[in-house]
Design brief:
The structure is a homotetramer.
Chain A: H1 7-25, H2 32-39, H3 43-49, H4 53-76, H5 82-98, H6 102-117, H7 119-146, H8 154-174, H9 183-197
The structure holds a DNA duplex.
DNA sequence: AATGAATGAGCATTCATTCAT
DNA sequence: AATGAATGAATGCTCATTCAT
């Protein structure tokens, strides 16, 4: 019956505050002060729950990766065919105005840039990317297999689809106004489908005549 | 009498130094000190040639955009068919290890993140993106026309190709190790070609008679 | 739990330190470093309690204006006649070596010069001047009324007396050595008195009958 | 027939430029750059003609003192009586909107504040003040003598008049809007005249009867 | 005489982090 | 758990002055 620690909730609040602040200020300009203000906390308390600012950022990367997986799971929950799961993959990330949560998208773009220079961020970022790649490759492989196609290109195709989505996030955050409306989800689906359609048939094991 | 101005050269040196420093430190960590050191100049001199750090960044955005156009022009100089020009477009950006100049690619990723929050950077970034989009759309339209296809989707296809390339830059900078080798240029070409191949024929104005 | 705020005291200390430093260094040379040193604080702490150096200056203007009012109130506390109050007005500002606190006088002169170019300082300065003018005009009007004189010139006379005092501050700060000893308070009193004495009688409402 | 040195003219131009810039920027903000720009010269040339920025300021003090004397001489040129000369003294400084040249007045106020802390400026300032005092004392003595008054108070009266004028400059520069219109010249004259009128008669050397 | 690039010291300000309460 | 004052290093930027041309 001891008083419950509220550490987990506080940490979540702080991570969420970083997301919000970072989305329109970037990482360096997201000061502990501004994060604290956003979270309705005091600067000292931030460092009570996190050792450093960098640690909050790492937590945010994991949080966003987790969120992305959850969102896919939700979208895929009613999918029964490989194609439906592929659609779920893409819609989970790109549907509804190129990403349902603009703040999360912008923050992800900022994280991508931080990953360029901060090894620890890069590692967390790469874990997230790996996870996404694995999901995409699996779904794409299923689609290819279902159509009786070769699966040699599943991996590069997954990579290409992921690159497309990352780029769409970037452009949605920094150049939304000049991009065609709603191109992202539609083109992602169509490009992958047409790519798969044009793939050669899988070689039969028994080529007897 | 009057001394010859070396401002243009100095500015180019400084912009180049920012590119180098920013590629592995990000924008905020690219201090005037570090830029000066990289360029072999003194901090005071940086501000003699540029009013602010932000102004150097804007100059870098323009410089990279200019460089991209020049690189495409070079690649396209021997292209005679629409398909060759499309290849030139993609190779100019993605060939040879996902972009010939890793520093420029990383810097571009960082610029993309800065464009999220700095209006002036965003404007310069959008100008560059617009220019790229225009080139891609033109080349894609040529390809479609040559094949007798409808051109309705030229714009979203250009947008999709650009998103792909931006995302490939991002992943090349922050997750090179976990991406399939050489997927980018090859997949870009193939996806666009297969998309075009699957496009419906252009409606004939007068089909019978 | 929560710590007690010492902000008000710290702010007062900082303002007081600015007064001291500014009195012999001017405003621009009163660096945050020197203010901090004078106050026995660190530069960072200065900016914890004040947003900017300019904000300290504004606080100082208000502080000096407040001090002037308090000093007059103290001098006037024993005054019962209009003349005594007039004397209190003048002595509060000019008695004892042209102002009891040389630092405050010098700082006020420096503030006057800053008010020429800094709009925010000018506003605070003008508020202080307005307040002084109002007090002087009221006291002078009382003196005139008591003597049965016209009060038309109360306002310009108050302005003249204030100009005299401001000028006396200036000269006491920058040319004390070459000014006659103790001229200021004595001459201020005498000039105002002789001016009032020479004013025409108030017009009687109904003079005859 | 050697080429004439244009040093004197250049120096005058530079001093004049400092006056203009200082009038609305103060002394510290009047950078060599801004002075050069105002004068249509280059920064390097400023230091060819003056050893330091401080030297320009000293030259300006002398220039303004000289100007004041010249202006008085001009106003007094047609004065034949002591009273007319007194009027000339006052009008030369305060007539026409409290000083004919607002820039010069503001610059003088700024100089007064600099004199508080810079010994060299203080010396030049005190020379100018001494000179003014001497002129005023002489004219006032003449007026007193003409009226057969004692001249004991000529010195403090001159000091008081000077203080008034300095204060009027200060208030004209920083608080013009809240001061009564045209009070300065009129009140200066009236106060001095009434003061003189109320002075006691000079003691007769031969008091015989 | 004149130019304008170059220097270097100094400034206000920011901010992650620490710590007494 | 929580507060908010305090620190100190770092940053962008300014500017008088110097100097090669």
């Amino acid at each position: 019956m001891s008083r419950k620690s509220n550490t987990e909730q506080r940490r979540a609040e702080i991570v969420s505050a970083l997301l919000a602040v970072m989305a329109d200020q970037g990482y360096e300009k997201a000061t502990i002060q501004s994060i604290a203000k956003q979270a309705g906390l005091t600067p000292g308390l931030i460092h009570y729950h996190f050792q450093s600012k960098g640690e909050i950022l790492i937590a945010l990367v994991h949080s966003l990766a987790q969120f992305s997986r959850a969102r896919y799971a939700y979208f895929a929950s009613e999918a029964t065919t490989p194609r439906e799961r592929l659609n779920a993959c893409i819609d989970a990330r790109l549907a509804k105005g190129e990403g349902a949560n603009p703040d999360a998208v912008s923050a992800w773009v900022v994280i991508g840039a931080e990953a360029v220079r901060q090894p620890e961020v890069r590692q967390a970022y790469q874990e997230a990317i790996s996870s996404e790649l694995a999901v995409l490759e699996e779904v794409i492989t299923e689609c290819l297999t279902e159509d009786g196609k070769r699966t040699d290109n599943a991996s590069p195709l997954a990579a290409a689809l992921l690159a497309f989505m990352e780029g769409a996030f970037q452009l949605a955050s920094a150049a939304r106004d000049i991009m065609p409306q709603g191109y992202a989800a539609r083109m992602a689906i169509e490009m992958v489908e047409r790519y798969i359609d044009a793939e050669p048939e899988k070689k039969r094991r028994s080529s007897r005549k």
